[in-house]
């Protein structure tokens, strides 16, 4: 079955380019040219994915995304942002966007992100989860809260976004550069030390022994990965 994508973008040229390209890739495409119209369509019709520009007339992309999530619409949202809107990207992820892409972008990159989001949606083993549990820690993505032994842990917006990203890519080795790009939205940061510092903070807050992390693991020479969920050890074994 053809997958349906809604494009909400006020720049006419880009809207046309995107729709033409996505149609030629076999998607069924619907478009809206401002936020109010986008919200209207997305809340009434079924789509497999929404490409949502951040800066829109009538209703901003952030408001559209937030209101859709509040309504319980879980359609994956790929947000389009300008370079200067780095802060908004993080806000976007916090309020329920699934991914973002910085303008100007390569069409192949957009297609890859769309495919990845649709695949994630299709894989029953990894649904777009709204809650995660590891050890004594529970993470509620909707309310952006983390709990350890059911006590609330205070995380900064960046720490939360990083944690969520790690959890969503559980078991994958993630380079520092990739994390910087995905979580911070920078391609040319002076140092990847930022990532290390935030990882250290997360470990401090969430790991039982931050010096011997069980969940947020270091992959030497590359970056980090979140440990795969293991079955609880069989208590008979090794006795
Ligand atoms: Ca715009």
The CATH superfamily of the largest domain appears as Response regulator
What is the helix/strand order?
EHEHEHEHEHEEEEHEHHEE
Rounded radius of gyration (Å): 19 Å
Task: Find the structural class using helix and strand composition.
Answer: alpha/beta
Structurally, how many domains make up the residues?
2
State the helicity in percent bands.
Answer: 25-40%
Low-pLDDT runs of 5+ residues are: 231-239
Overall CATH class of the largest domain:
Alpha Beta
Total of DSSP H or I helical runs spanning 4+ residues: 8
Mean pLDDT: 86
Secondary structure: number of strands: 12
Q: How far apart are the first and last residues' alpha carbons, in Å?
A: 53 Å
Small molecules in complex: calcium ion
Beta-strand residue fraction: 15-25%
**What's the CATH topology name of the largest domain?**
Rossmann fold
* Anisotropy-based shape: globular
The main sheet comes to: 5 strands, parallel
Features:
239 residues, alpha/beta, Rossmann fold, Arc Repressor Mutant, subunit A, 2 domains, four-stranded antiparallel sheet, 12 strands, disordered C terminus, binds calcium ion
